Amino acid sequence: MPSQPNWLDYNLFQQIYCLSMSANIVSGHEGSEETLQNVLQQSLNRVLPKLPGKWTISWGPKVFKEQNKDSPKGGPDNVWFAAADESKNVCVAIAGTAPHSWADMGQNLGVNKVVDFDAWVRQWSSDNIPKPQPCNPNENDGSTVAYCAKGTCIGAWNILHNPGTAALSNCSTDAAKVMRIDEYLSRLDASHTVVFTGHSLGGVLAPVVALGLRKANRINVHDVKVLASAGVSPGNDKLARDFAETFPSPQELVGTYKVYNTDYYNEFDIVPQAWSISPADDRNLYNILNRILQFSDKLKPWAELLSNIAMGLSRASRIRYVPLPGQGFTGQAPSGPIQSWDDLRRIVGEQHSLAYWNTIGITDFMRLFERTFCLLEGAEAE
């Protein structure tokens, strides 16, 4: 009997989703930048050989904490890395929300202020990517000006502004290998395919970073794609149209996770329902209470209050948030009504994470990565 391969028999889309979700694992842990970064790198080095593409880390990983970088308390604000396979696919994986990060809450909820996206991107250069500044949107120019949530732009700026270490053979010294992710990508020859991927917060940062770099002519020689999941709506209709025109989606693959340039979302996941307040959009905040979640009489007033706060943040922006092109799948419907906040956390966690692992078929890899990360984290602490 022939010996079985020691890798998981995953297709390319599954492999990229594994990279995306691996970045997310770090977000649930606390530690200093250096500690979390070391554990992530060791975990990736151990587990990536289980994927058939012969993936190796080519940039990073980078763990960024805005404050208390050396403290063992608090989680990362952003996590990202690049990995390359033997077929010259380079995947930039961006992590989702860290539950121990107030900065991530700001990136998620910072939708009441917006940035003129094109005006900001025009300032990008090989020398500098300036911090985004909010603007006062004109409600009459929504069809001609692309507006993006300030919180999302801050997250994208964190990804693009902070340098990491690139694995480039043409750099003579280690110091020369320290560069921003866009600098690393710009050094790749045109034969490489670049895929930006992320889930949750990463699911909105990945398309925004990709769109910005395309508009700024930082990665124009490459074939660039986006594989995002569970992302919120980043901005207005003009921004969504710009993304769709820059990264067209192959419509013949509708109904599967094997499709680039859309937001892949579970229809019972509340996260991608933000921030549209138009019932005409397939993802909008009204869906959360009208279609997805049922609350007990005791919790319903509180749920309605939280829903109204979310809609108020969206309205305060003075733009109409519109989802990026999306592709939904139907997970297992939550059993309701929800009786406690613990029930809500459990249901949201299942629908926002596990449902994706199971549907895409990467649960075995993710369980292995979780175990490896926790084992190495424990060894690092000793």
TrEMBL record:
InterPro entries (UniProt xref): AB_hydrolase_fold (IPR029058), Fungal_lipase-type (IPR002921)
Q: Which residues form the Fungal lipase-type domain?
A: 181-274
SUPFAM superfamilies assigned: alpha/beta-Hydrolases
Please give the biological process terms from Gene Ontology that the record holds. Answer: lipid metabolic process
Q: What is this protein called?
A: Fungal lipase-type domain-containing protein
Q: Which organism is it from?
A: Xylaria multiplex
